[in-house]
Amino acid sequence: MAGYLWRRGARFWFQIAIPIDLRGAFGSTPVRLPLPCDDYRDASRYARRLAGIAESWFRELQKERLTGLPSSPAEAADLFARSGRRPS
Questions:
Q1: CB hemisphere CA count around 63 (13 angstroms)
Q2: Phi, psi torsion values for 21, nearest 5 degrees
Q3: What are the phi and psi torsion angles at 38 (to 5°)?
Q4: What pLDDT does 87 receive?
Q5: Which of 4, 2, 28 is nearest to 15 (CA)?
Q6: Residues 6+ positions from 50 with CB-CB distance below 8 Å
């Protein structure tokens, strides 16, 4: 079976671990989702797609944590407003 795919009874499930550096924010429980199919081939396709989405999401979160920079001018303005400082 594919690395992110497992079967319990008659149902296939997707599972992916939370990266270690994100566990402080999201916990250590893996993401688990039941897949809407009972055929191995279809379940494998779903699992590969979900793995790609999850990995992309994790990368974005890791990048955001590393840079610590606002992702938009509106977010920067909001950060300044909350801090009580004015941008120079």
A1: 8
A2: -75, -10
A3: -120, 5
A4: 47
A5: 4
A6: 4, 14, 16, 33
Rounded to 5°, the CA angle 21-54-70 comes to 60
Q: How many CA atoms lie within 13 A of 29 on its CB side?
A: 3
Judge whether residue 26 has pLDDT over 90. Answer: no
Split at pLDDT 50, 70, 90, the class of 61 is confident
Which pair of structure tokens corresponds to residue 48? 């590969």
The answer on pLDDT for 76 being more than 60 is yes
Write down the pTM of the prediction. Answer: 0.69
Contact of 46 with 4, CB cutoff 8 Å: no
Local structure of 65: helix, strand or coil: helix
